[in-house]
## 1
Amino acid sequence: MKRVAWLSLFLGSTSLAQTPDLAALEQAAQKRFAEWETQAKSLEERLARILPCDARSSAAIAEVRGLSDARLAALNDYMRAASAKAFAETAAARNLLSAEERRPIEAARERADAGQEQTAVDIQSDGLLQSINKRSSLQDAQKLLEQITALIRLRSAESERQADAAEKIVPMLRDLVAKFEARDVALQNESAAFEAERTRWSGYYSARQARAQTECSITQIGSPGLNPAAQPAKSPAKGKAK
Amino acid sequence: MKRSLSWFAGIWICGAAAALTGQTSREAYRQDYDAWREAHGNLERDAGSGGATLIPQVDRAAARVAAFGTNRAAYAKAAAQAAAQRRQILQAAATRPSPDLAPPALSAQVKSDLQTVTKTITRFADDKDRGIQQLRQSLERERDTLAALNEAIEARQKAVATTTAAANALEQARARTAETIAGDTSALSQNSVELEKETAAWAAYYEGLAMAIQIANAPPPPRVEITTVAPRNDTAPGIPRARYAGAWTYPTTNGSFHGAQPEFVDLVVHETNGHADGTLFARFKLSGTATDPLVRFDFQGDFATAALQRFPLVASDGTKGTIELIPGPAFNLLEVNFVVDPRQGKINVGNFILVKK
């Protein structure tokens, strides 16, 4: 059992150590976006200067599509990490609320304890006052007992104040947990929206590639076998070299 | 009273050990409380007439309250630490995804492409050429995908805006809650400190009670210096031996001294049947003509009934001298005076106040 516990502890610490760095993922997503944006913006302009059946035409679309896929993959990584972190926060907030909801009960017990101790000390004090009449040397002890009484009173007041504070904190935490949960729902919807957009981008680039092939094929009517745009593109540089 | 301190220390250590092993539940310290109250009984009422027979009961009550206090403070400390740990979630801003990863310009680009494709389709609408019709069909498929993409982008932008609004509302609530709860976290961490003060106060109370019972109503002894000629097994009322016996040390901060300044002092005093023996080991800051900072000597003799106890001492090199032990203003303080026959480069006089370990 000990080994299992240690292993769990080790795995737990390992998984914590492997928590993705959100800032690094955001930076990577921004970089992929910039790379894609540059090529995507100039795509139509570049295609307009290339003959329909030039292999560079298909290659240019494939390249932008690859950059788009890379961008959306980086964004997906970022969203997944952000969601994981957000859900962990919400779990911690729920845990906090659960503990704080128990605090007023604990504070009430402490107040009851302090009351019981106060009563006991009062009885001690009465007994000591009676004994001082017979033994004056007990006066110093009586002073010490008075100090203890004062300390218990302070503690009792403090525990009452803390119970009041706990009563105020719980509704705030309930509202906070609700907001954590609302944020998580929004985040889930955002992730789903990104995923839907990702599919649409893929569909668009397929349609754009199909149009390029159509443009080539209609210019090649009567010249069978000449349809380079329909062939898998190698690279713009190689196409240019040909 | 000799047994009082050893009992007290023993129970204190047991309490601390229990706290360290995690046995700091509320039930555990409440059991300690019940045991303490039971041991305490009616000490105050009995103190008026009772004698030395009450001392063992004082010892037991002191030990019980020490265990109770230690466990309760440990429980409060652990509870405060756990609460502070849980509340850490409120200290940092909640995660919010960056809204800049898919800027609005992206939507504009897609809309622009959609318009271009739509215009081209319109331009080819009436063209009967088979190739152009094929191209138009291809453009129509592209237009449909662009329209769907544009819709997806708008839906995503709305989702991002919703997340941003939710994250803003969350952040405001978090900051507000963190501010409200900060004072309470600080107060919780003070609980154990206050409880430790209470525990110390109870220890002082029981010591005071024991002293009061021991000295009864006898007038205070005259403050005359009595040497070690007092008979053994002296049972005359006076300052309890516990005010001298035990392990003492020089405080690391704000120590009181006169003459040579101690860097550290360890003093151990044993008491057996009214007989004292002890050892002092000290190091002083060098000043004047002294070149050896260390002082070590043993002493022994019988306790006197006076507050001031004086014993002959023998230093480690055989030199002789005298040490005086004077109870301090608090139970855990002891003033020490020593004089050793002068030797070349050695410290031969010291006066300082020690605290009980």
Note: The longest strand of chain B covers residues 262-272.
## 2
Amino acid sequence: MQLLNKRPESLLDVKMHYCPGCGHGIIHRLVAEVMDELGIRGRTIGVAPVGCAVFADTYFNCDMIQGPHGRGPAEATGIKRAKPDTIVFSYQGDGDLASIGMGEIVHAAIRGENITVIFVNNAIYGMTGGQMAPTTLIGQKATTCVDGRTAKQAGYPIRMSEMLATIDGATYIERTTVHTNPGVIKTKAAIKKAFQTQIDGKGFSLVEILSMCPTNWGTRLDNPSEATKFVQEGMLPVFPLGVYKDACAADKK
Amino acid sequence: MAEKKLWKGNEALAEGAIRAGCRFFAGYPITPQNEVPEYMSWRLPQVGGAFLQSESEVAAINTVYGAAATGVRCMTSSSSPGISLKQEGISYAAGADLPILIGNVMRGGPGLGNIAGGQGDYWQATRGGGHGDYRCFVMAPNCVNEMANFPHKCYEVSFKYRIPSMVLADGIIGQMMEPVEFKNPEVDVKTLKEPEWALGKCEGRNKRIVKSYDLKEGGVEIMINERVKRYDRIEADEVMYEEKQLEDADIVMVAYGTSSRIAAAAMKIAREKGLKVGLFRPITLWPFPRVRLAELAKRVKKFVAVEMSLGQMVQDVQLAINGRADVYLHAKPGASIITAEEVAKTLESISKKEAKEYAAVK
């Protein structure tokens, strides 16, 4: 008998706290599968954020650190520069990365830090209960914009991948989604390429992954298609998928 | 005798840290401590270490938080406003039991204040500064030679008890030049054992987690109570102070850092006038030498805190004395220089019973 599928070694057999329909569980598994396939688990250090993925430090089967909100890229920088022979990834949500941690992510990219960032964009603050995020869509309701986000009052959603791609220090930037099966497969390929970029010493890599948050979007928990529809019809037009920067082939000095 | 050389305070602090094994530094420019990152930027690579000029004070402390988690001896430094920005990171380091070294070359505050040397960060340094229940090991040098030699002790305590430590200096000590003798043998980092909590390669062992949280009911209480046991050991074993002419003293000045030098000059003036004045200098601000002060208060009945602030350390003096003697205060805020003559006048008025006690209740 042949075992066709199993839990990745890089993911521990613990009960996750994520809500039904949440994308974090899928994304955790993809990161873990990539760590297994690249054979890097034994030398990888992960940085858990503040936000829904705060407990990622207990889920991944590698050394992990949990630190202040938004500072993952700074922590990852310190780890990587202190121990250059480790593989370092920072796992962050959109409040963590695109709001309070905007400075750290931009400057990590500017420096071309040889780290990998997994950026989960679900257009809302999850852990704190559904407040407006920097990526919340115009018209999208949140607990701090109950009638929907307006540009006049709160400005526009930020497109991080597009912005970071303008930075010379960034090597590989791609936006993917996990709301469809092909999206999941493409996301895994992107995560793998991002880690490979780091393994090859080529510099800063980031995968922005559009993900579902049925609990805080107010979509039905017993009908996940409502949430995937929101990604498809709401988020995709604002956050188009694709590779925004790929300088892996270029000789970076 | 070892060689003595002229060093600038900030550079002595940086070199002292490197000789004590520092191999990672992240910082951000702020006066009057700029010589620390400047020196580190060229010196650390010479010893195989890493230097990073961060985009902000916040990024600097968090980069050090990450580096420290790998077990490396690391450091960040700043001056008052920058140290305020670092407080969240310091709180996390304390909560995650990370042994980081922080240099604070104090200037005048609050706000942007000024860039002269002051002592207004005493409360911030000794009371935690950031959120939550925690302590930092705080040493206060009063000369360039101590700037050079204190990092050694800080790392020793930091790694032994897993606690952040701070060298609390001021702009005067940071900027002046004095003879320095590096007294401790240079630490060979290759001989340092990797701590059993350090992050790195988990191949062949269980994974490790560096974190400051525990959401289980009572979880953080357990974490803190375990830490308090270490704090207790530090209070018992790591207190440092210096005493001058206490044998016959009727009045004892309590002063740290730059103020202690001014107090020493004031003591000379006062003694020439026939006043029996002594000087007690806390070297560790936390743990504060309260046991020794309480002991002294059995005999000495007048203590006066001398500090370049609105009066911060005086509260620790008062707590230690606990009513056993009178406590007075000679203080000047805003990074203004206290003169020996002014302090001598205060001493005279105390001896003539003209001075008002600190926080006297009428």
Note: Strands of chain A lie at 44-48, 63-66, 87-93, 116-121, 170-177, 204-210, 242-246.
